[in-house]
Prior knowledge:
The chain is an alpha+beta fold. It has helices spanning about 5, 15-25, 105-115, 120-145, 145-160, 170-180, 180-195, 210-215; strands at about 25-30, 35, 45-50, 55-60, 65-70, 75, 95, 100-105, 165, 200, 205. It contains eight helices and eleven strands. Helix 3 (about 105-115) packs across helix 4, helix 5 crosses helix 8 and helix 6 (about 170-180) crosses helix 7 (about 180-195). The two termini are about 40 Å apart. About 25% of the residues are buried.
Amino acid sequence: MSFQSYFPIWDQLQPHQQRRLLNSLTAQAVKRDTFLRGGSKDCAGLLLIRAGQLRAFVYSEEGREITIFRLFEGDLCLFCAPCVIPSIQFEVTIQAEKDTEFWSIPVGVYQQLMAESAAVANYTNELMASRFSEVMSRMEQFMWRSMDRRVAAFLLQEAAIEGTCELRITHETIARHLGSHREVVTRTLREFQGAGMVQLSRGKVTILDKERLTDLRA
Length: 218
């Protein structure tokens, strides 16, 4: 599909704004594990994902990664261009979790659209509010939820994303998402296995009892 099909407020733009936006776009593709942004001074542009999956994460004081949200097909990555939203005061790193295709929107073009169009400004504010709500929810889980509940929630989320209960994922990867140590995640997964909720094998976690994991997550 075209960019017009992915940009949710395309029909609310004026014809000259639509032309300006289309003429400014750059189509790009990156391989899995590519870093698209890292550090507070990196402001290359906004990304609208055509296909693939990105992960946004921050570093804890101990240097561990904590995933704060994921981005999928049709999502617009505002955090890839923090200079668009001056109120962003923390550093977010963006990494491709899968091979990803996207359109890059130059910062200047998007800022001009925000100034001219109430629809673009409102859409941007709503999207930012939604992302911050997601970030706060993740931080709340990190600070207050027990590790077994966090691991259960993560496994269920991964199953929903991948559309399967056979998750090709390592304990180290889960630990990076949750801001924990691999040994802690391994111990928790082994407890789940002992309780019959999952089955573990090299590089794979198979969910056996979604209902019990869901009860544990709650």
